Amino acid sequence: MPSWNTIARRIRVPLGFAFAAAYIWLAHPTILSIAIGSGIALAGLCIRAFASGHVEKNEILATTGPYAYTRNPLYLGSLVLAAGFLIAARSWWLPLIATVMLFAIYFPVIRSEEAFLRSRFPEFDDYASQVPRLVPRLRPYGNPSRPNSFSWHLYWKHREYDAALGAGLMIAALIAKSVWLPK
Predict the structure, then answer these.
(1) Pick from 153, 33, 11: which is nearest to 85 by CA?
(2) pLDDT over 90 for what percent of the chain?
(3) Residue 125 dihedral angles phi and psi, to the nearest 5°
(4) In the chain, what are the domain boundaries?
């Protein structure tokens, strides 16, 4: 029988689509809530984009760029993105559902990914002991003279633009709902 971490990894994307449908149904957006939430969501997209341009998945342990401040900048960006959308939606149910998903799905996935990194990269334990899992530290980890450049190639390779496209579609759906089905 597979572990919960394995199950969580498998169901997080389909569950995300189900949550998106529930999100649109339960949302009560206004133009103001959409504007404020979109600004916060944009910050989350930027964090994700910056992180994506620094990680060479399964090849090198990423410890530069945003990875010098937090071990999981992609998840941090996703949390900021989600916070923006929760503000835009103006629904008390959605933060409750999102919190359950965070603890039941995303934290187990993060732990599972870190177990993989620990098994693949011997230096991970030292890195993990100095860099927080999610909340960024104030000073960067590691050698400041180490290369720290963003790669557009990595951004495109990881298809991070899909997050921006998805966010744009969700904002469009919120605008449509606020215009055609105002509360």
Answers:
(1) 33
(2) 77
(3) -60, -45
(4) 24-139+148-180
Cβ distance 54 to 154 under 8 Å? yes
Q: How far apart are CA 5 and CA 69, in angstroms?
A: 25
pLDDT tens for each residue of 106-131: 999 999 999 999 999 999 999 999 99
Q: Are 37 and 94 in contact (CB under 8 A)?
A: no
Give residue-wise pLDDT tens across range 10-20: 888 898 889 99
Angstrom distance (rounded) from CA 99 to CA 61 = 29
CB 69 within 8 A of CB 15: no
Find where tokens 């133009």 sit: 31
Locate 86 and state its tokens: 């929760």
Tokens coding 6: 């394995």
| Neighbouring residues of 139: CB distance < 8 A, sequence distance ≥ 6 | none
